[in-house]
Design brief:
The complex is a heterodimer of chains A (about 110) and B (about 120).
Chain A lengths: L3 E4 L2 E4 L5 E11 L4 E6 L6 E5 L3 E2 L7 E14 L9 E8 L2 E4 L3 E5 L1
Chain B lengths: L2 E4 L3 E3 L5 E8 L7 E7 L6 E6 L6 E3 L7 E6 L4 E6 L8 E8 L5 E4 L3 E5 L2
Parallel strand pairs in B: 2-11
Antiparallel strand pairs in B: 1-3, 3-8, 4-5, 4-9, 5-6, 7-8, 9-10, 9-11
Classes of the chains: A mainly beta (about 110), B mainly beta (about 120).
Chain lengths: ~110, ~120
């Protein structure tokens, strides 16, 4: 089973700043099967990025994804107040899914 | 538009079983599979398994093998998740989510809180 490790656990930033979230896999992951989700308190997760770098429908272009192999990154170019939430990476491989443990993005 | 609407909250005693339903609308049900994901209070997302709504094939997370069953009723576009022998650590919000050929989960249900308590 592929383990996804996200860092940092918590990221404290101010609106307008740039956020860089990391997701590292225990073995190589196909970029096709790497996704990122945003979850706000009391809400279901929302798909942000699929295929490592493609934005889902309706996602602002300040969100971008990159990476390959075992290292993937979610970047938020300029934080808006509504971006403060928990972010999860997810992979699919060998018929199994796994999620990272999440990064909490909080207002500094 | 696509909607996944789940059944309401449940309170169960240890050892009991629970069934959570997920009714899909706004798309052809058998063109997309359904994943089930749960989230214990204050914790992260845990993948439980998926069902191919066209073939009925399933794949479950190893830790839930033997306790979980996922099924569908294609006549009503509804997916079901049954969990047996409930324990206190099964207390969580349970989500259904749609997946397509690319595996990402593009639409999610609103979540169903299952509380296991004596």
């Amino acid at each position: 089973e592929i383990v996804l490790t996200q860092s940092p656990g918590t990221l404290s930033l101010s609106p307008g700043e740039r956020a860089t979230l990391s997701c590292r896999a225990s073995q190589s992951v196909s970029s096709t099967y790497l996704a990122w989700y945003q979850q706000k308190p009391g809400q279901a997760p929302r798909l942000l990025i699929y295929g490592a770098s493609s934005r889902a429908t309706g996602i602002p272009d300040r969100f971008s994804g990159s990476g390959s192999g075992t290292d993937f990154t979610l970047t938020i170019s300029r934080l808006e107040p509504e971006d403060f939430a928990v972010y999860y990476c997810q992979q699919y491989g060998s018929t199994l899914y796994t999620f990272g443990q999440g990064t909490k993005l909080e207002i500094k | 538009q696509v909607h996944l609407v789940q059944s309401g909250a449940e309170v169960k005693k240890p050892g009991a079983s629970v069934r959570v339903s997920c009714k899909a609308s706004g798309y052809t049900f058998t063109n997309y599979g359904i994943n089930w994901v749960r989230q214990a209070p204050g914790q992260g997302l845990e993948w439980m398994g998926w069902i191919n709504t066209y073939s009925g094939n399933t794949n479950y997370a190893q830790k839930l093998q033997g306790r979980v069953t996922m099924t569908t009723d294609t006549s009503t576009s509804t997916a079901y998740m049954d969990l047996r022998s409930l324990r206190s650590d099964d207390t969580a919000v349970y989500y259904c989510a749609r997946y397509g050929s690319g595996s990402w989960l593009d639409y999610w249900g609103q979540g169903t809180l299952v509380t296991v308590s004596s």
